[in-house]
Structure formats: C-alpha cells, structure tokens
Write a structure and sequence with these properties.
The protein is of the alpha+beta class. The chain is built from six helices and seven strands. Strand 3 and strand 4 form a beta hairpin. The longest helix has 29 residues. It is elongated and about 125 Å long. The termini are far apart.
Length: 276
C-alpha cells in the first residue's frame, strides 16, 4: 500500500523500465520526477497547493516584465516562486496607510462638503470688492509701465498724513502746454518734497486721468505687479471658498472655476479701459 496515495503498490518494474530509469541524463537538462520503484521508500513531502512532490516544484520561475527590465535585473529575469503571482507578474509591496489616518483612496472617495450658500455669497462679494480695488489702483501704473503716458510737472498744493496714509494733491502741467489738470492726486511724493509749492516731475495717462505718478525706477512697476497679483489671488480665493473646485462633476467644476476666474479678470479689463 502506497503511503501517499493510499493505493495498492505498483507491480515490480520490468528489466527494460529499470534500464531506462538508470540511463544517465545530460548535465544541465531538465529532470522529470522519477516514479518510485521501491514501495519501501520513505514518504515524499507533498506541496499543499498543487499536490506535487516538493522536489518537483521549481524554486525559481521567470518573471513577466519588459525585456529591458529583465536584462537589467541581477537575476536575469528569474525570481523565487514565492515572489511571483500565478500569471508571472512580480509581487509588489502595497503602501501601508499611516496609523490614525485613512487611506488616500478612501479620502478621494469621500465627497467634499460644499460651503453653505450664505458663506459662499459673503466670500464672493468680499473678494470681488477687493479685486475691484486692486484693479483700480493698478490700472494707471500698468499703462505708465507700458509707455502709455504723458510727462510733465506737478506742483504740490496740499499734503496730509505720512507713509501709507499720505494724501497729496496738486496741479499737473503737461510738457509742451498740451493740457493742465487741477486738483489731481499725486502718488509717490518723497517725504522731503511735501511742502506746498514744491514741483516734481510726474506722469499721467492723459488729460482725463485723476492721478499723477512721481514714481521712478522699480517703484513704478511694483504698483501694478503687486496689484494684479492680488487680483489673481482674489480670483483663486473665489474659486476655492465658493465651492467651485469641490464640485463632483468634472464638467460643472470646469465651468464653475472658469466663471470664478473670469469675474475678476473682467473687472480688471474694465478698469484698464477706464484708465486709458
């Protein structure tokens, strides 16, 4: 009786079978499992998955991967059988989520709650007003920076405050006596030139402008660069805090974000046209 299969022992092999079994195999060639000839041999350890003897299961198998990866692999594209899937693809370590924090897939699957309508409306109005203010103060310096301006001289008539709260007024006379503007706001007056009657070189966008700018060098570019950057920040805040970026439908999300960015952009274009 065979101990492994619980079947009657096989009959004694013939002389021809014995000679075939004793025939030497070529070195390096595959060796097939040989039948057990002596029933008195000890039992063979069986692989639990396939039911085959353990010594008949290969220890290394080819890995299913691109040729350039197989050639670059130190093992030549072969790996232990425990590290390969049934279809030949290698096992990969799955990233473990950090303790106390849900996985990224679970976070993506959880829909973001949109803000309440009153809060979203308040954010929209507040940021729209801020964007309008920054666009208004940046329109004139932008045209001056691109060359749309008229040079002249401004005479200070009054100044109040200091620093960021400084407010000065004056009379602007364009070069060549092309026009004269009374009571214009004077921006960028140095601290030591605020006396009444002081004359400074300044520029205006035209006879319909309301501000004469005395800034020179880098200062004249900082005004419009910072202002337009703040307008862009207000547009991004509108898209974020009104819930436009948290819509579930991709098409609706694109339209909502586009409208949120288009509002401050149209406000800026309007102030630029008015300041021309």
């Amino acid at each position: 009786m065979n101990i492994v299969t619980s079947r009657p022992a096989a009959p004694e092999p013939s002389a021809a079978a014995t000679r075939r079994a004793a025939r030497p195999t070529p070195p390096g060639g595959p060796v097939a499992p040989q039948p057990r000839l002596d029933p008195a041999d000890p039992p063979v350890e069986v692989e639990p998955t396939t039911g085959a003897p353990v010594d008949a299961v290969p220890s290394r198998v080819p890995v299913r991967q691109p040729r350039w990866q197989r050639e670059a692999a130190p093992s030549g594209g072969w790996a232990p059988i425990e590290e390969v899937h049934w279809d030949g693809t290698p096992l990969r370590d799955e990233p473990r989520p950090r303790p106390g924090r849900p996985s990224a897939r679970r976070e993506r699957a959880r829909p973001a709650a949109p803000p309440s309508p009153p809060a979203g409306l308040a954010v929209l109005l507040t940021l729209s007003l801020l964007a309008a203010f920054f666009a208004w103060v940046s329109a004139g310096p932008f045209w001056l920076a691109v060359g749309h301006s008229t040079g002249g001289t401004v005479m200070i008539t009054e100044c109040a405050g200091g620093g960021l709260t400084q407010r000065c007024r004056g009379i602007f006379s364009a070069d060549g006596d092309r026009f004269q503007a009374h009571g214009v706001r004077v921006s960028g007056v140095p601290a030591g030139r605020t006396d009444t009657g002081s004359s400074l070189r300044a520029r205006m966008t035209g006879p319909d402008g309301s501000t004469a700018y005395t800034d020179t060098g880098v200062g004249r570019h900082l005004r419009w660069l910072l202002g337009l950057a703040l307008v862009a920040g207000c547009a991004a805040g509108i898209a974020r805090w009104t819930g436009a970026t948290r819509l579930a439908d991709e098409r609706q999300r694109r339209w909502a974000v586009g409208l949120a960015l288009a509002g401050p952009a149209l406000i800026t274009v309007g102030f630029l046209a008015a300041a021309w």
